[in-house]
User: Which sequence fits this backbone?
């Protein structure tokens, strides 16, 4: 039986953090079936955690934002050498450069591979030279993949319509899934009176296109209307990223009492447990944001944008609200509606949100997709 065969599976990404945080449940499912997992990525603090989970690790250094063609050529040869040395039976590539150069290297060695497009990202934000360059590279490389996976239908449609990928290779996943047993609600105070200090929370990378600045502006609008609330912000601050939030802006928002920045935390559950509403006004080219799935799984009502990926996690007025992209006034209006809503009604929204996540985004659906492609490709 194909299910009883043991294979070496490689996961190739721009950091070990994303493998651990987004795909650990997939790794565990493959380990339970006896498959050997090798992680190939730049080194970071999560390498040790993956090794403790039983993964092999091989470093490969690259910058997913670099536009230096010599660095990209070197990445291709480094990946090719690793693939030739370790001979994985199947490779999963994540983010742009592994998808492009790793897929080509795997094809040259006749190793089947899956390209997972986790979101269109920074390169697709504007139709400039970078957009056309990356689009050209995708078109040349993804045809060599066994399958190309997307996390939402809109991204898949863009690649199909642009002629980058043939529809026969496309598969749309329900995001990267969320472990609804791990992200589960805790007992809060009984619905009835709203808590004295209403708490909004936003957890993401601190990028402009994630809507961090819009969150601060919406908080200012509500503060100017006399509302008393707390707005927590969690996430990795990357001030040197071209899309990063400036340190001066972050400090200004904190000093003005608009934002309470809690830094990066590896486990967001405690912050979500203490919150009344999750806010994510992203205009980034998302896949399906994990932060939204986690928040909804913990029964938090959500305010997010009519943005691809984001709107997949909200049923308007049933599990949260969708606001206009890039509009702090509409964002503030939706936040105000939740702030004024009776606690019992917010609790009902939260329960519906968890039901939605369980039905559409539970990690078991994603685990099954990985197991099926392994059996179908290698069995």
Assistant:
């Amino acid at each position: 039986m194909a299910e009883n065969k043991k294979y070496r599976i490689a996961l190739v990404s721009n950091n070990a953090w994303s493998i651990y945080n987004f795909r650990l449940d997939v790794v565990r499912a493959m380990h339970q079936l006896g498959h050997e997992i090798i992680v190939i990525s730049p080194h970071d603090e999560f390498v040790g955690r993956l090794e403790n989970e039983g993964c092999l690790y091989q470093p490969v250094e690259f910058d997913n934002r670099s536009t230096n063609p010599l660095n990209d050529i070197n990445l291709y040869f480094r990946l090719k050498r690793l693939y030739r040395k370790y001979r994985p039976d199947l490779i999963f590539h994540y983010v742009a450069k592994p998808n492009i150069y790793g897929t080509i290297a795997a094809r040259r060695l006749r190793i089947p591979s899956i390209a997972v497009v986790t979101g269109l990202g920074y390169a697709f934000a504007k139709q400039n030279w970078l957009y056309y360059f990356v689009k050209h590279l995708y078109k040349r490389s993804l045809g060599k993949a066994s399958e190309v996976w997307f996390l939402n239908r809109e991204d898949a449609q863009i690649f199909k319509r642009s002629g980058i990928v043939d529809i026969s290779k496309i598969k749309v996943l329900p995001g990267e899934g969320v472990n609804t047993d791990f992200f589960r609600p805790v007992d809060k105070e009984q619905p009835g009176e709203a808590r004295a200090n209403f708490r909004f929370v936003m957890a993401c990378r601190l990028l402009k296109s994630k809507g961090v600045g819009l969150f601060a502006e919406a908080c200012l609008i509500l503060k100017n209307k006399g509302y008393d609330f707390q707005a927590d912000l969690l996430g990795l601050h990357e001030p040197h990223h071209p899309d990063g939030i400036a340190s001066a802006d972050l400090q200004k928002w904190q000093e003005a009492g608009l934002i309470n920045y809690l830094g990066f935390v590896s486990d967001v559950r405690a912050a979500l447990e203490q919150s009344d509403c999750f806010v994510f006004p992203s205009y980034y080219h998302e896949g399906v944001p994990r932060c939204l799935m986690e928040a909804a799984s913990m029964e938090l009502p959500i305010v997010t944008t009519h943005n691809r990926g984001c709107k997949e996690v909200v049923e308007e007025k049933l599990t949260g609200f969708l606001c206009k992209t890039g509009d702090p006034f509409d964002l503030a209006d939706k936040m105000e509606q939740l702030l004024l809503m009776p606690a019992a009604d917010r609790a009902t929204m939260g329960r519906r949100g968890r039901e939605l996540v369980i039905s559409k985004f539970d990690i078991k659906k994603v685990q099954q997709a990985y197991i099926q492609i392994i059996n179908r490709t290698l069995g």
About this structure: Residues 207 and 244 are 4 Å apart (CA to CA).
